[in-house]
Amino acid sequence: MHHPEALEPIVAFLRGLGLGVEYGEGAHNGFLPGVNIHGGVIHVDPDTLVGSGDLLHEAGHIIVVPRHYWPRLGTDLLADTEALIAEQTGPDRSPDPRLVLAAGQGEFMAQAWSYAAALHLGLSPGCVFFPGAYKYHQYEGLHPLAAWLERGSHYGPLFLAQSGMTGFSGLFAHMDDNGLPPFPHMTRWSLN
Q1: Under DSSP, is residue 35 helix (H, G, I), strand (E, B) or coil?
Q2: Stretch 8-28: mean pLDDT
Q3: Of 32, 43, 84, 87, which has the fewest CB atoms closer than 10 Å, so is most exposed?
Q4: Contact 61, 72 (CB under 8 A)
Q5: Residues 167, 180 contacting (CB under 8 angstroms)
Q6: 3-state secondary structure of 185
Q7: What domain of life does the native source organism fall in (predicted)?
Q8: Are 19 and 73 in contact (CB under 8 A)?
């Protein structure tokens, strides 16, 4: 596993945010090896987990969805989020815009959120962005996504700022000012 020393601090951090994390067999057959989601709870198997940061990334997908929807989230987060949107869409109502943002931009948001969480915990961004992560196997220097975030041109911080979790930063700092400190500082780690 890449960065095994980061696993316990990550688990403690996620549990501190109110996110359930359990060890065991429930981690099998997830989107990523060694991590799966059942009813909004992350299941992890350290023996098959490729990198400790994968746990942060999957948590990021849950975190950007308002908390009261978490029990409805499972292995296929996009399908679950889209199903929640479909339930809310009708002639007299429109879906929760935070769900729409999470469904459309959840991958970018999870990447940025997990990067910010790693920095907050004093961990190397390499625990999230390691060789092979996000299908980048060979590169020189920083992982390409970490470099994108550090340059301020990654879209994830923009969407996190639009959801009120952080301030606008990087190339997007001129777009708006929500009064929050800029990314990677997170004012809120989850949506209520």
Answers
A1: strand
A2: 97
A3: 87
A4: no
A5: yes
A6: coil
A7: Bacteria
A8: no
State the sign of the Cα–Cα–Cα–Cα dihedral 2, 9, 71, 106.
Answer: negative
Q: Report yes or no: 135 and 152 within 8 Å, Cβ to Cβ.
A: no
Number of other CB atoms surrounding residue 98 within 10 Å: 17
Reference 19, options 62, 76, 64; nearest CA is 62
Sign of CA dihedral 163, 189, 125, 32: negative
Provide the domain count of the chain.
Answer: 1
**Residue 141 DSSP one-character state:** S
Give, as one character, the DSSP assignment of residue 101. Answer: H
Q: DSSP characters for 73-116? A: --S-HHHHHHHHHHHH-BTTB---HHHHHHHHHHHHHHHHHHHH
Separation CA 184–CA 168 (nearest Å): 10
pLDDT range class, residue 160, cuts 50, 70, 90:
very high
Q: Do residues 169 and 154 lie in contact, with contact meaning Cβ atoms separated by under 8 Å?
A: no
The closest of 35, 95, 86 to 61, measured between CA atoms, is 35
What is the C-alpha R_g of the chain? 16
Q: Is residue 161 part of a domain?
A: no
Tell whether 190 is covered by a domain: no
Is residue 145 a part of any domain in this protein? no
State how far the Cα of 103 lies from the Cα of 81, in Å rounded to an integer.
Answer: 6
- pTM > 0.70: yes
Range of the structural domain that residue 88 is part of = 4-129
